[in-house]
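in:
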């Protein structure tokens, strides 16, 4: 059985004090739900304080990004080793990184390898934009991003990481994919590709999330799909009650 996993991507929201207040508001209830793995991804500057506030719980901390180099003249970047001791996960290849900061599949792949070298678990995001979706290119785009991002990994590494399918047109728009459509991309396109490149056991082991305007009102319909193992959540993760309710809903359906 794949343990469901939900990750809250706070993006560029919350000061350090606000971040600590938010995790304190939900840590007791989240920690009581042991059948779902909860991950909080705050801003870089809030990571140490959030990690401290979550110490002693099974709630994990994740970074929203990182660079692939160990150190060097890379102004504004964060090295993998700087996250060690604070983070269990690192989100890589998010569509906003690709859209606004020019990230490529090759760059995502280098970051994935660097993450594993530092015992950080990558959450690798893939997904098509609206034009690609309307043009029937979803499978091609997802397979291209996934193939590039996972290049050179062992089957053990692939089984250990998390994949997040986030249709770009659904992120922060209030729109979301139909559960059956998300199931097709996750269960057929993504798991199918992993099975082709590695084996069926690896395809069945890897956890795959859905993301894109996921919230407490619709999460149960997505979790009813057999191949959807959780959610990567944006706006709904910024409110304690909403995020806790999502985790409870996942536990009720799949916990």
């Amino acid at each position: 059985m794949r343990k469901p996993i939900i990750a809250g991507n706070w993006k560029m929201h919350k000061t350090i004090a606000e971040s600590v207040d938010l995790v304190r508001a939900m840590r007791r209830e989240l920690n009581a739900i042991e059948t779902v793995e909860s991950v909080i991804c705050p801003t870089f500057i809030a990571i140490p304080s959030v990690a401290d506030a979550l110490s002693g719980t099974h709630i994990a901390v994740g970074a929203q990004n990182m660079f692939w180099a160990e150190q060097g003249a890379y102004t504004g970047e964060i090295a993998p080793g700087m996250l060690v001791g604070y983070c269990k996960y690192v989100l890589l290849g998010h569509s906003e990184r690709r859209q606004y900061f020019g990230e490529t599949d090759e760059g995502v792949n280098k970051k994935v390898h660097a993450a594993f070298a530092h015992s950080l678990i990558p959450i690798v995001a893939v997904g098509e934009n609206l034009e690609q979706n309307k043009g029937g290119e979803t499978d091609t785009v997802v397979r291209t991003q996934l193939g590039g991002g996972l290049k050179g990994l062992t089957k053990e590494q692939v089984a250990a990481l998390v994949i997040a399918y986030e249709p770009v047109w659904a992120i922060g728009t209030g729109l979301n994919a139909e559960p059956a459509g998300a199931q097709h991309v996750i269960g057929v396109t993504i798991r199918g590709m992993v099975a082709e490149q590695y084996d069926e056991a690896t395809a069945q082991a890897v956890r795959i999330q859905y993301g894109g305007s996921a919230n407490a009102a619709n999460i149960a319909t997505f979790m009813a799909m057999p191949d959807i193992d959780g959610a990567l959540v944006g706006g709904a993760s910024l409110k304690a009650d909403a995020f806790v309710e999502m985790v409870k809903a996942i536990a009720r359906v799949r916990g």
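note: The two ends are 10 Å apart (CA to CA).
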